[in-house]
Amino acid sequence: MDRRDTIKSLLLGSLAGGALLAGCRIDEKEGETALPPAEESEGYGRTPAEKLRDEELMGETFFTETEMAMLSLLCGIILPADGQYGSAVDAGVPEFIEFIARDIPEHQLPLRGGMMWLNSRANRLFSAEFSACSPEQQKQLLDEIALPNEEAPGLQQGVAFFSLLRSLVISGYYTTKTGIESLGYKGNVPNNWDGVPDDILAEHGLSYDADWLAKCANPARDEAASWDEEGKLLSSSAAIITNGASTPNTKK
C-alpha cells in the first residue's frame, strides 16, 4: 500500500478523525456585540465584518519566498502526484497553508519554527539546508520525525511540526475537487436498487411481482408508479409484495 492509499484508508475509515483542520474562523471577543445579519450577494453571504477580514487576509503575506519554496517541497513529499491525480502542490495546498497561517496566527510560530528546526537538523547531519539535501537525505530527515518518539527528546519540536504540517496538507488536499475525486467519493447520487435480495424474501415467505419490480426498481422505466392520498398504488399493472403470490392493486 502506497502513501496515498494509506492516507485515503485513514481518511475514509474515520472521516479523518482529528486530522482535518477546523475551518477558518473569526474570533469572538468577550462583550462584543452581535454582528449584523449576513448579506445575500453573489456567491455566498458575508457580513460586513467578515468581508473586511477577508480583504485584510487576502492583502497579507506571511511566509517568505524561500519559506514558500520549502513548504511546497514538503507538501510534494507528503502527498506526491500519482498516475491519475496531481500532488498537493498541484492542488494549491501550499497557498492554502499560507492562508491558514494568516487566518490562525497560533500556527505561525510552529510552522516557521518547524522549518527552521528542519533546516538546522539538515545542516547538522548533512551540512546543507533541507532543500539542498538529496531525496534520500530528505526522506531520512522526515522519517525520524514522522512518528512520536519519546526516546529522542531532541526531535520533539520536529515531530510536532511535521504532525501539524501533515494535517494541514491532508486538510488542504482533500477539500479540493482533485482530492475529493481521488477518494472516489460520489456523494448523494441515485443508484440502481433492484429490491430486497431473493434469499431474504424466501426466508420470510415473500416474493415480488415482476411487474411491480420492473416498474418501481428499474431506473430505466418509462412509467412512474403513483399513489392516491391514502397511500394506495394507483397503477393497475403493478403489485406489492405478497405471501406466496402477487395481488394486483386496482384503482378505487
Estimate the global geometry from the Cα principal axes: elongated
Calculate the terminal CA-CA distance, rounded to whole Å: 61 Å
The total count of helices amounts to 10
Tell me the radius of gyration.
Answer: 28 Å
Biggest sheet statistics: 2 strands, antiparallel
Name the helicity range: 40-55%
Share in β-strands: under 5%
The spatial strand order of the largest sheet comes to: 1-3
Class of secondary structure makeup = mainly alpha
User: Would you identify the regions where 5 or more consecutive residues have pLDDT less than 50?
Assistant: 14-41, 236-252
- Average the pLDDT over all residues and give the rounded result: 78
Oligomeric composition of the shown chains: single chain
Number of domains: 2
In short:
With 252 residues, the protein is mainly alpha-helical. The chain is built from ten helices and four strands. It has two domains: 3-9 and 50-183, no CATH class; 198-248, no CATH class.
Give a written overview of the molecule:
This protein is 46% helix and 3% strand. It is mainly α. The chain folds into two domains: 3-9 and 50-183, no CATH class; 198-248, no CATH class. α3 (65-78) crosses α4 and α4 packs across α7.
Which helices and strands occur, and which strands form pairs?
Elements: H1 3-14, H2 48-58, H3 65-78, H4 93-103, H5 108-126, H6 135-143, H7 156-173, H8 177-183, H9 198-203, E1 206-207, H10 210-217, E2 239-240, E3 242-243, E4 247-248
Antiparallel strand pairs: 1-3, 2-4
Helix pairs in contact: 3-4, 4-7, 5-7
Features:
252 residues, mainly alpha, 4 strands, 46% helix, 3% strand
